């Protein structure tokens, strides 16, 4: 049976627990908050060439509403599993309760 859950906390940004490989860019400017990048990056010099960087972004966002199966994975989409990524969820009996909880979390 499916469970409705809300992501109530995620690790702080320096923690890799909620970051996954998002994209590999070659010959691009260094990503940082000044140009809109809010994730983490790793230089890949030697692996993919002199100007390649691997960008990482958050897997889950605080307040995100999920529908999980018996194994704790999303029932659709990417089938992400919150327990794998170091985030905390709270189960809700109804979708309406999940929406109220999600909206009550302040970022």
Describe this structure in words.
The chain has one helix at 95-104; strands at residues 3-9, 19-26, 40-43, 52-58, 65-68, 88-92. The mean pLDDT is 77. It has one domain (3-104). The strands form 2 sheets. It has a 3-stranded antiparallel β-sheet. It has a 3-stranded antiparallel β-sheet with strand order 2-4-3, with no helix packed on it. It has 107 residues and is mainly beta.
Task: Please outline the helices and strands.
Blueprint: E1 3-9, E2 19-26, E3 40-43, E4 52-58, E5 65-68, E6 88-92, H1 95-104
Antiparallel strand pairs: 1-5, 1-6, 2-4, 3-4
Question: What descriptors fit this protein?
Answer:
single chain, mainly beta, three-stranded antiparallel β-sheet, 1 helix, globular
Short description:
9% of the residues lie in helices and 33% in strands. It is mainly beta.
The main sheet orders its strands as 5-1-6
Number of strands: 6
Q: What low-confidence regions span 5 or more consecutive residues with pLDDT below 50?
A: none
Distance between the termini: 31 Å
